[in-house]
Amino acid sequence: MLKRHFAGVAAVLALAATPAFAADKPIVIGVPVGLSGANSVVAPSVVQSAELAVEEINAAGGVLGRKLALEVADDASGAAGAQKAFDSLIYQKKVDVLISMETSAARNAGLPAVTKGKVPYIYTSFYEGKSCNKNMFVNAWVPEQQVPPIVDAFAKEKGAKTYFLIGSDYAFGRGMLAFTKSYIEKIGGKVVGEEYLPMDGSDWTAIISKLKDAKPDALITSTAGGAPNVTLTKQLRGAGVSLPYANLAVDEGTAKSMGTDAEGIYISASYVTGIDSPENKTFLAAMEKKFGSGLKTPNDLSVPQYEAVYLYKAAVEKAGGTETAKVLEALPTVSFTGPRGTISMSKQHHAPLTMYLGQVQGDGSVKVVSSFKNVDPGEQCPKLN
Predict the structure, then answer these.
(1) Stated pTM of the model
(2) Fewer CB within 10 A of the terminal residue: the chain, N end or C end?
(3) Signal sequence: where (predicted)?
């Protein structure tokens, strides 16, 4: 049903031409995203954010007199699907840029095509960090921005000294938990267990048994965004696990889909719907107006997508066109003030971000516990500066 729902989106987004647009062909944005597989829970919200940004920009006259159009391709949330999706978008659809969140496996599989095809790529997903490519810019968080608020809160407020780590067995899961373990040990804590399940796995029974046997003070998980979050949390609740629990991969939209199972989970995010700013209120109102009852909850995986379209617009305008070399030169020098505040991918192709430590409530909303302004991403890609 999901694929059928987005069948129309996969074609170039056709908006009525207006006199504001020149006769030039549209600037085409490719969006490879997991409409199927692990990311299928969050992909609809990502596509919606891209659609709104394109509609707003086109209504305001486009970019250098040209309208924007979208080409969406299902990467099936994995490496094999990503290779097909990237190849199709770059070599067949001839897109001008790729903008999307993806699993780390999909991103890594698609990067060779980005390099060979010489297209700009704005990666809008939080990830394990230190993925570097001259054509790729990142406007989402990395472990240096996301993990410390959680571990510090557990240590100081919960008195946690021992931790159990659970992840999906791929680059994101292992990368996030490797950083988490090092940070826990840095502040004097101890990891008493670390377990992984394949990304498409759904039976966490054996791992939960090991968790119970280890009797840690706190649990931190890093699973593939979407379905694995749902299955793991449901099984943890079913097994009666009630210790302090933080999930490094749950976004607000997924939390809502999990119902009462998500209540009490701690998250660290660069976006929550409760951000009290004019830009966020305007964004939420526009999303509600456009999608109505079909709106998917805006979240930390979809809002960066919206902002990235605007960042690309700013770069094209500064570059005077879509030529890749000039756009890549402009991308780290432009900024956009949107739902998360002012975003600029100026630090080694990454972005300083305001981070929010939150706790999921019974209705799936996130209560902000504390915030941290303009957290630096740290050393990510020093050779790209």
Answers:
(1) 0.88
(2) N
(3) 1-22
